[in-house]
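Backbone shape codes
____________________
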Amino acid sequence: MLSQLHLAFYGVCLFMLSAGSHQEVLIEESTNIESLHAPTGGTVELPCDVTPALPDDRMGLVIWYKQGHDTPIYSLDTREGVTSHWSDPTTLGSRATFRSSTTPAVLLLTKLRPEDSGQYRCRVDFIRSPTKNTRLNLTVLIPPERLIILNQEGDEIKGGVLGPYDEGTEVNLTCVAVGGRPPARVSWWKSHALLANSEARAAVTFTLQRSDYGTDITCQAVTDPTITPLSENVSIDVNCK
């Protein structure tokens, strides 16, 4: 009988220990992965859910991870009653600040670099509530380095002048955006009229008329509305009949 009671007590203890351990490792995973984008050199706010599931609870530790890094890149510790910030000097350094007073709380990143792109995870450990994880993707936008305008022979047009060509000549031009992330939308414009629009490169064909003499045709590359477009003008030189 003593042996049976001992085994029963041992089983209850195991259950309580298991239940207690389970409570400690409860984790709430965010089902949505938010996508954010911001220009190189700009600023972005990475949201993090710091709302506890249980009443009268608070966050104790916030840890930020970035895909491709084996260790955290940022942390905020309030468990001892004193707020302590840490930022990985090789990744974020002084460019990162966590703001818990906003809704939602955010990790503010400044002076964005192309290598800041990637997937981030914010882990929040509370005093009593289950741990929460917020995941998001950040894309740092990079404008094209330059535009190249090619004629129908594939030669680059330099000096900003197309021609001279005889009136009635059919002309084919291709504009290529070099570099950039994501690929820019490239378009051709003439007298505020859109002639062509495509990704990374755009081609346009038109027949020269007398009225085209001295007219500018413009190639424009747009990465994002937040970034100033890159443009290149070509003046048309026509030999009128």
Notes: Residues 1 and 7 are 10 Å apart (CA to CA). The chain is about 10% helix and 50% strand. Confidence is low (pLDDT under 50) at residues 1-25. The chain has two domains: 28-141, 146-239.
